[in-house]
Design brief:
By secondary structure, the protein is of the alpha/beta class. It has 2 domains: 150 residues, 3-Layer(aba) Sandwich (Rossmann fold); 141 residues, Glycogen Phosphorylase B (Rossmann fold). The protein contains 11 helices and 11 strands. The strands form 2 sheets. It has a 6-stranded parallel sheet with strand order 3-2-1-4-5-6, with helices on both faces. Strands 8-7-9-10-11 form a 5-stranded parallel sheet, sandwiched between helices. α10 links the parallel β9 and β10. α7 crosses α8.
């Protein structure tokens, strides 16, 4: 039995982009045992894929803030023991960072990843047993898939299959009316789209019978959600959600319109009609992908105008009829 360990620890969108690699391996090796190392906060994402046997959570983000505590060192010891409990045939590092190769070296197995010019921290490639030339101009999903293809000798020439699903959420705060998700939040101000555009889009979708749900992840984002909700009839400001609940929340949406964030890519992977808005990143290289209608617009320094997104939303709604 082929035993493979995947190392893709963060961030949220990166884990979503790694899911088709799992589907590729399972398609070519139906009996493969696939384990995955992920940051503890993001572990629910690979857990959704039925071909992932075990998600091994790592807490590096938390550990590095408490290296002086005995509990931290005990957790790190337990993590290393879990990695060493299996003799893997291959360890696929699709993160390409020093921290990911450190994790790979803790496990038993040949390590494969991109070569020095293919990964973000090129020096990490020195520790790989096999280095693959992978153009950084390729979509991030295809770069992940290329690691598996190069390591295992198959062609990753079919459309990506994310392989995940979730039951739509039922919650007291979520009305039974059809809803759409407007993902206005982003990690940097440069990624934001004008609030006036979100308001106009929310009002249009309300006219189409969809209530706008406005998720948030920080106090600043919550304040923006509340400002927009006050201007959009029937809009919903959800409570803060973990990824397990968020998956079900997104799975029940009729439409998702979002900035270049992990949640937007997560929605597309869950086969929801998705429109991606790119204001400070490449709308081609990191475009949203999924089995439903998925379109991406904009690039660094050139956010898409409202009319472009409006037309895409109309097309997405028509595709779902």
């Amino acid at each position: 039995m082929l035993k493979v360990l995947l190392i893709k620890m963060s961030s949220m969108g990166d884990l979503v982009h790694n899911l088709p690699l799992v589907s590729d391996i399972r398609a070519h090796f139906p009996d493969a045992q696939i384990d995955w190392v992920a940051e503890e906060a993001y572990a629910p994402i690979p857990s959704l894929h039925p071909a992932v046997r075990q998600v091994i959570p790592v807490a590096w983000r938390r550990w590095r803030r408490s290296l002086g505590q005995a509990k931290t060192w005990q957790e790190m010891k337990t993590f290393a023991a879990t990695l060493r409990a299996v003799d893997y045939d291959l360890i696929l590092d699709t993160q390409g960072l020093y921290k990911s190769v450190v994790v790979a070296l803790l496990a038993h197995g040949d390590i494969v990843g991109g070569d020095r010019s293919s990964i973000k921290e090129g020096g990490a490639a020195l520790f790989y047993n096999k280095r693959l030339p992978i153009s950084r101009a390729r979509h991030v999903i295809e770069r992940c898939r290329a690691v598996g293809a190069g390591a295992l000798g198959y062609a990753a020439d079919t459309p990506p299959v994310f392989g995940i699903s979730a039951e739509p959420l039922r919650a007291a705060w979520l009305p039974s009316d059809p809803y759409c998700v407007l993902m206005h939040a982003a990690s940097r101000p440069e990624k934001l789209w004008p609030e006036a555009h979100w308001r106009a889009l929310g009002l249009y979708l309300q006219q189409r019978g969809l209530r706008a749900a406005l998720p948030w992840g920080s106090p600043e984002e919550r304040a923006r959600s509340e400002r927009l909700a006050a201007l959009i009839s029937g809009a919903i400001v959800p409570p803060l959600m973990g990824l397990d609940v968020a998956a079900r929340f997104l799975a029940g949406a009729e439409l998702v319109v979002g900035l270049d964030t992990g949640f937007t890519h997560f929605a597309a992977a869950l086969a929801r009609p998705t429109v991606g808005i790119f204001c400070d990143s490449d709308g081609e290289q990191a475009a949203v992908y999924g089995d439903a209608y998925c379109k991406s617009f904009g690039k660094k320094g050139a956010p898409p105008p409202y009319d472009t997104i409006f037309r895409a939303v109309e097309a997405a709604l028509e595709s779902a009829v």
